[in-house]
Amino acid sequence: MLTFARRFAFFLATAAALAAADRVSVAAAANLVYALDALNAAFRATEPGTTVVVTTAASGNLVAQIRNGAPYDVFLSADLAYPRTLLTSGDAAAGTLTPFAVGRLVVWTMRPELDLGSVGVLMRNTAVHKVALAQPETAPYGRAAREALRKLEVWSEVQGKIVIGDSVSQAAQFVQSGNADCGFVALSLVVSPELTGKGRYLEVPLELYSPITEAAVLTTFGRENAAARRYLAFLVSPAAREIFTRFGYGIPPAGAVAPVAPPATSPAS
Amino acid sequence: MSDAASTFLGLSAPLWQSLGLTLRLAACTTIILGVIGLPLARWLNRTRCRLAPILETFVTLPVVLPPTVIGFYLLLAFSPQHAPGSWWRAVVGLPLAFSFTGLVIASVIYSLPFAVQPFQAALRSVPHDLLDAGAASGASPWRVFLRLHIPLAWRGLLAGLTLGFAHTLGEFGVVLMIGGSIPGVTKVASIALYDEVQRLDYAQAHGLAAVLLAVSFILLFLVTLLQRRAR
């Protein structure tokens, strides 16, 4: 009985300590899933005692959740449009829009016999029956893929071959399982520790699609969370940039980086 | 607006298409559930085979299994890296994932217990002496089944078919894993609804959700009536 009471007291003390510790709840676009492990480890190294909890899904899905009151402090979007939507609707804190990485689009295949000479040639290949991409309506990598295919003037030919994943991760799943012959995914996924060395990829030339500027924003829910503000600032630190580069991202040009608002402890007027 | 021409009752044409596809999928699935589920239910009721409990457990699994589990294993099974998928690809030339046939196979597995369990209960409810009398008057077992068993248990059997149909309408996780969201082929209503919510088009989402809610209610109400009368 006594041991139980003691254990319970210890449990209460631990729970109280955890509640008091800084906690950042991050909602992140699916393409960031691998880079985030390294990123959060680096962040925790600078801030021992801070807990980072991550949810990954398609950006559009996360926006829908946030607009309906999901308790995320920081939203890491695959493009600028979604955080802007949240800023307009008042679900994100003004002045916190932070572009932190530029996504790169690749075509990825597990089929060793496919000729990866160029995107156009690959798309016209009759051996390619199914091409996976993320939902162009809601996933930035899907939209970029559609844009590239239109620019290459193969969209109408490819349309009948397209299968759509809910997010870029799911498009990758279709390719990895071999159900789709090839697919448009984020470079960050195919160079990840889990997928590196699996299949082959061809980078889609940057001039074929508008830049996929990955950007973060503080949600209205996380406005008062000082640790969340530090997390946002950390995303554009040299340490974070090194990680993004290692994980297959470009770095946004200096002008694209909006200044991060000061911490909540000294609120901007 | 140019969109106005392609909307009916407030729902856009692609959403009606997804509803039509869902109904077609549920209809195909229900027919197959009847064809394989009925003999299966009868066999499970009568057999003394020691493996029957294992088979019955397998049939019942989708009741408790997350649909994504079924979807995940089907994604692997349909893949050309594994026997069923590579065989299909060799014969048909296209992957089984992302196809209507693939969805039908998945739906039959997913909805099987929802049909087979009512079938078993309905068949069990027919008094044994009636069937014995039929057999004693010289009818073959098959004839007894067709002429006595089915007519006497029809309410329960119809309830099973309706439940199988209704359950297929609600399929989401399985299709998400193997469907590929192809309009008219694999983009069923539940996936279309999910996409509308992601696009933040709540008006369209509401319309589609309301239709699914109404259809499901009517079907379940029918099942309830059938089962109350069968008792």
Automatic annotation (TrEMBL), chain A:
Family matches, as NCBIfam families: modA
Highest rank taxon of the organism: Bacteria
Family: Belongs to the bacterial solute-binding protein ModA family.
Protein name: Molybdate ABC transporter substrate-binding protein
Gene3D superfamilies per UniProt: Periplasmic binding protein-like II (3.40.190.10)
Pfam families: SBP_bac_11
Residues that, per the record, bind molybdate: S59, V168
Automatic annotation (TrEMBL), chain B:
Domain ABC transmembrane type-1 residue range list: 19-223
Keyword field contains Transmembrane helix: yes
InterPro entries in the cross-refs: MetI-like, MetI-like_sf, ModB_ABC
Keyword Cell membrane applies: yes
PROSITE patterns: ABC_TM1 (PS50928)
UniProt keyword list: Cell membrane, Membrane, Molybdenum, Transmembrane, Transmembrane helix, Transport
A GO MF term: molybdate ion transmembrane transporter activity
Bilayer topology annotation: Multi-pass membrane protein
Domain of life: Bacteria
Gene3D superfamilies found in the cross-reference section: MetI-like (1.10.3720.10)
Parts of the chain that traverse the membrane: 21-41, 53-76, 96-116, 202-226
Family annotation (Pfam families): BPD_transp_1
Compartments in which it is found: Cell membrane
One GO location term (cellular component): plasma membrane
Location, primary (coarse class): membrane
Record-stated family: Belongs to the binding-protein-dependent transport system permease family. CysTW subfamily.
Function noted in UniProt: Part of the binding-protein-dependent transport system for molybdenum; probably responsible for the translocation of the substrate across the membrane.
Annotated PANTHER family: MOLYBDENUM TRANSPORT SYSTEM PERMEASE, MOLYBDENUM TRANSPORT SYSTEM PERMEASE PROTEIN MODB
Protein name: Molybdenum transport system permease
Native species: Horticoccus luteus
